[in-house]
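Archive entry. Fields below.
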Amino acid sequence: MARITMRQAITDALREEMHRDENVFIMGEEVGVWGGTYAVTRGFYDEFGPRRVRDTPISEMVIGGAAVGAAMNGLRPVAEFMTINFAFVAFDAIINHAAKLRYMFGGQMKIPLVFRSPGGGGRQLGATHSHTPDVIFAHFPGLKVVSPATPYDAKGLLKAAIRTDDPVLFIEHATLYQIRGEVPEGEYVLPIGKSDVKREGSDVTIVGYAQGLQVAMEAADELAKEGIEAEVVDLRTLRPLDMGPVIASFQKTFRAVVVEEGHRSYGIGAEVVARLQEEAFDYIDAPIKRVAQLEAPLPYSRELEQSALINKQRVIAAVKEIL
Amino acid sequence: MDKAMLLEWYRQMVLIRRFEQKSAELYQLGKIGGFLHLYVGQEAIAVGTIAARRPTDHIITAYRDHGHALAVGIETKAVMAEMLGKATGISKGKGGSMHMADVTRNFWGGHAVVGAHLSLAAGLGLSESYRETDNAALCYFGDGATNIGYFHESLNLAGVWKLPVLWICENNQYGMGTAVSRASAVSAIMQKASAYGMEGKQVDGMNVFEVYKATQEALQAIREGKGPQFLEMLTYRYEGHSMGDPLRYRTKDEVEKWREDDAIGILERHILENDVATKEELDGIDHTVEAELTEAVQFAEESPLPAPEELFTDIYVED
Amino acid sequence: MAEYIVMPKLGFDMREGVLNTWLKDVGDLVNKGEVVAEIESDKATLDLEAQVEGTLLAFLEEAGAVVPIGANLAIVGQPGEDISGLKGGVSAVQKPATKEAAPAPAGTTAAATAPAAPSGEAISAEFPAGVKATPVARRLAEERGINLAQVDGTGPNGRIRRSDLEAYVAQPQTTPVVTPEPTPVAAGPDTEEVATTRLRQAIGRRMVESKTTVPHFYVTTEVDMAEALALRKQINAALPDENKVTINDLIVKAAALALREFPNLNASFAGDKLVRHQRVNVGTAVAIEGGLLTVVQKDTDTSTLSKVAADNKTMIARARAGKIKPEDVTGSTFSVSNLGAFDVDHFIAIINPPEAAILAVGSVKQVPVVVDGELTIGTRMKVTISADHRVTDGAEAAQFLQVLKGHLERPLRLLL
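PREDICTED_STRUCTURE:
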């Protein structure tokens, strides 16, 4: 198995799906001639041509809405928002349209599209360019929200996202593009809406996804050196949220820490904790902790920005607090 | 133009008007909930434009959508059942007045966020362009929608990508209660099209013949690869923006003036003056429409409510 | 500086004790090691020896009070010493918090209006009424019939966690089960109500637990005791009274030797595993006033018969005098219950948890027996083993009896 970057895994998934299905096409800002601002679609313009790799004006509203319109009529757009922060501009297209049309018209339509978007903080981009707003989008029934943590998952889940007949917001944490992981040669698709145990352990359950999952894994490695075996569960999909493996793990460890890069208030941690107490109350042996972004806009200055973000020390401290 | 076609236009316009008047009654009886936006006065536009389209051309409009729903041929009873929130409604009772659609007729709905569906229309056009067909998308919107970002992004994208979209602005003079002149920097909406490489054309939206002709020409241009086209239909809604509109923003005289040039009246005059049909024939159509409407209301009233489990169906294709 | 006399822990499984009587009065001088009170635990009545010296300044508990171990009973210090602050700390331990909240009547000590006790003491205040326990601990306690008030919490603010419960369950002989409510009996002129002793209550709890949770099975055999009695006669002729060997001593020793060959019977069932005890400590049930105690001969298998005899005699005497020591009654791995003195043919006993088996011994009797086809008079004793079916099966129990029988019928090896 080759060890490739998450960027490469996403590129491979897109390329394979475009070869597989003529209805799949890419649209977005700088996806074509430029090759993608994160170089995910480098070479695609030459390979597939301007019909299937479409550079759009800087117009997030119509990027979102046109993708919905094309999908309604049977195409399978992969529309890119240059960053998730710009998806805010297209919020109406994503939530009011992509996520709602099928229901509102009594199931007459399918909206088989993927909105791809890099997100996340930690790159000194200032408050408006550093959001991890994933849960906001996951709030609404009708949309599927996927955010992978490993190259393997990224490839398998993106292919699934392109193939599902439902609209998917596929959030790629920008700092994860560089990470490497084993990805098998050839075709595979992973199920959307399935959490995955990334590391087994019996002392505490750490729940995370995307960057939060990576931080959780780093923390688990450190904890193992002290003899604390953490089980790490990767949510992978925020909607539909698969609590099964989380609850199974919690029933084994009786304690949990939820890690996410987004803000703590109203976050995925709040959701996971609420579900745990609803569905596994009789297994709680300690307060369930959340490790998340502090409640301030992300500043530009590096040290200050880092101080607001999650890191393994904070996860380790949270684990030790409840052991 | 043959007689059958003109009588069909007449039938559709009378059906739409009577449907809207009946809906207002049912709304006041509390049988229709939510918002209700009536199309009375604007009938010639839906009927004339849709008459000019091919069935493979797409129709997409805003929330004032009953007229378009009936003009594309959705059964009257399915539209009425949707108004009453019944399981037999065209959208299974989940959409309501503002959200009629029939995908089998390439009618992609009524959409209730002003301007948003213009971007969907761009996508519909994109899908046909992508497949290299000569089908077009007809997108209807009010004058108020031309001030929103969606309008400009969508027209620009259509212009840049030469998308086969016919933009049809139904300028009924008011965005809710705000007159065009108070909301738009240019009072002739068609001027806005020029910013996106389209000429734009003003059409008498009360005259179904003018509407039909302009639409035919615009669609022809699109099919010839000339890119998106823009029509500004000058029209007027006789009723308020929606039920409960205090109508403080306009005078009764103004309404009466527009009524003198009523869309149905213009068509009726043409039919009678040119001996296309007799008054008795038109009365016969009126009676047919009346019967159809009575049957539709009865059907809607007697139809079952959506089953409780319908709450959770149609959210996703794959759960 | 004033110090406390506290309720001592007299046995590892003691949770609380009854303060039976004060043997001193306020104002008396107390020496270290001096008996100041009589305490009753589940198992015995014991002397409370002072660990502190000074003048007895105040009683904090009256005779008859049931007091958790470690709780303060009395204050000892210098005559005239101000002890109001101390009392405040004490009351937080023993009085319900609601009482503290009541307005202080005039003339009370400063204690009543003292600032809120530090958090550690505050927790004690709501213990056991408001036990703090995590949801999983509560669920497990309910499932296993454990009274959370008896479990020590090691979590934040004294919260009982799952691990505390597991530690509690893992303690030998301390797995109380919920005792079903007894069928109500109507009181009336024809009935007399007698308060049960703590010992009787403890026996009740233990036996209910055993009979309701341990799947008992029983195997009986008959032992020819002629040789054993003859040997005993010979030995005792040479021994002073205090060292004379009883029939029970022979049986205890024989059982210990047999247990070495059957480690499953010298064991405890522990959920998904069996805990085999390395030491063979045979207990003997002793009837005392108000109940029953099991005195334990440590390392019975390696102890000489005369030591077994002497130790048992001493412990039984202490038990009957109510002066039993905690170590006398703890650590047994197998028990013998002998009703031979009461002309009993045979009987079956209830296993003493967490042991895996108990041997019930009947009377030695002269009975007609057939030997080599001829009717003759034999000296026979019936023994019945009750064993835990989770640990062993009938065949093994029967084999154990065969070996036991062999040791008693050829008793010389009991002297080795």
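CURATOR_NOTE: The longest helix of chain C spans residues 198-213.
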